[in-house]
Amino acid sequence: MTAFQVELDHISMTYQSPSEETEAISDVSLGLTQGEFVSIVGPSGCGKSTLLDIICGLVKPTRGSVRLQRPAGYMLQRDYLLEWRTIRQNCLLGPELQKHNMKEARTYVDHLLETYGLAEFADHYPRQLSGGMRQRAALIRTLALKPDVLLLDEPFSALDYQTRLAVVDEVWTILRKENKTVILVTHDIAEAISMSDRVVVLSARPARVKVIYQVRLSTAGLPLQRRQDENFRKYFDAIWKELDIYVSLG
Amino acid sequence: MSASAKPSLERKTYLQKMRIHRVVVLLTQLMILIAFLLIWELAANARFIDPFITSQPSRVLAAIIRLHQDGSLYLHVWVTIVETFWGFILGTGGGFLCAVLLWWSRFLHEISEPYLVVLNALPKVALGPLLIVWLGNGSAPIIGMALLISIIVTIISLVSGFQDVDPDKIKLLLSFGATRLQIFTKVVLPSSLPTLISTLKVSVGLSLVGVIMGEFLVSKAGLGYLIVYGSQVFKLDLVMLSIIILAAMAAIIYFGVSFVEKKLLRWQK
Predict the structure, then answer these.
(1) What is the domain extent for residue A18?
(2) Window 74-113 of A, Cβ < 8 Å to B
(3) pTM value?
């Protein structure tokens, strides 16, 4: 066995409904090593989010298996901070549900809030925070359980463009610093290239692995700076072509 | 932030305006009430209306004082309050438990749906005679009526409130490995708090309706009894007095629930 930290072994998924049978995912295999950042892009509705649900263990695949250290941290499209809990209480949700030692969890969460600039908002309610801060709080909530693996399902799509660029840099920095293994699902090609070590392109439904790009940029640094790299455009064009998106101007 | 600093002139004028507006609204509301009572009283005195069938404020006041002196006022009010309380507790409590059960088991919910729809549409007062036969002629059939009237609406609106919770919030909890009980207590119940409170508002009012209806059918005391008795012996003072006390009770209940609402939904403000 190789030292993959996350391993998808021939995953297939078929949905049943009264009217028809839908094949959403067809024979997807993938392996991630410790600390790797992999993005998954694909045409909309191709089953990217379903794949993430399967990896997280929320949905059982029809065929195939997933191997990883559970629970994996899951970040959704919106922050889903619970409005009636303070930021600290929101961040402590995972340890609370897992019935961990709350004193230790609180110390750790306070440390994370302190490190990532939310300490003074710990006792605020979510509605008092900006979109970017809320997403950061959602990330800390995910990190509170100290998962080895993080699954991000378009976690920036609800943010406006400028906030989004800033939050991408923030989240990326945090994940690198904590040395997490990350799978990011996104429809934003530029975001995928700027953040990842590898980009997996899925086909239209049923989703198959079409091609995997190893991203090699000479520019080190934050995702925003990586976007300036001379090779960035090349990856972008190649992936764009692979995605086969036809825009009809009828 | 700006409130702690020295308020600007514009802000002061604005606040002043708001205060005046509130006072004007309150005064107008009071004036309408006073005018209504005054016209009623004067019209009865001038015999534009017959006080024998419409009563009049001064007579109602006299009746209140009379019932206060012989103590029966408190007996009737107390009986109605106690019956409403139990009808409300049983109807809302039972409704809540049923709603939790139906949220828990999709199967049960699917099965019970047509029954709930029919029971909801059925005029509960039609069951009154049955209740009397089954539960006797004490307080039991009256409480039963209050319970019947409030429980079905409570179940239906609570279940739909529980099911309205954002499925992604539940997904988030599942990703943390939450159990079904944890999902209910940590997300479903707190997110349904606004629904819960609006249901409380409706069901407490319905309990009062059920109690009065029950007292119309069978009772020896209570405001509903007083209304029926008063109309039968043509003592309209008694009827009007009971209605006024009922209105006051409804108001107290409303403000009570609003108070609870403010306490529970502090995070919304």
Answers:
(1) 9-72+148-242
(2) 74, 76-78, 80, 82-85, 93-94, 96-98
(3) 0.82
